[in-house]
Design goal:
Length: about 120
């Protein structure tokens, strides 16, 4: 079935790095603004980063300077490079369209930062 597919999560120690991937279904990916979100257990989903069609990026203050969002239009994929990870980054990470979001969410990818 057609769905957003997030991957790349895992268990890392504080200070470590991960790169998350988001494969977006359908056509016209190059025209899409894309967002990354995260959700910790029992907490609301929070916005993390956005990338525009032209590659401009914005970030939540909590991740600014540590995370980098990017995209590869040839792969229909948005990425989130996560460096200097902290325990408070632990969450399930999701992606979605940023202007007209898909009505459904993917399964997300678990990121656990722990020593």
């Amino acid at each position: 079935q057609v769905q957003l597919v997030e991957s790349g999560g895992g268990l890392v120690q504080p200070g470590g790095s991960l790169r998350l991937s988001c494969v977006v279904p359908g056509t016209g990916f190059s025209l899409l603004v894309m967002d990354w979100y995260r959700q910790a257990p029992g907490k609301q989903r929070e916005w993390v980063a956005r990338i525009t069609r032209g590659g401009g990026a914005t970030y939540a203050d909590s991740v600014k300077g540590r995370f980098t969002i990017s995209r590869d239009n040839s792969e229909n994929t948005a990425y989130l490079q996560m460096n200097s990870l902290k325990p408070e980054d632990t969450a399930v990470y999701y992606c979605n369209r940023g202007i007209t979001p898909f009505s459904y969410w993917g399964q997300g990818t678990q990121v656990t930062v722990s020593s």
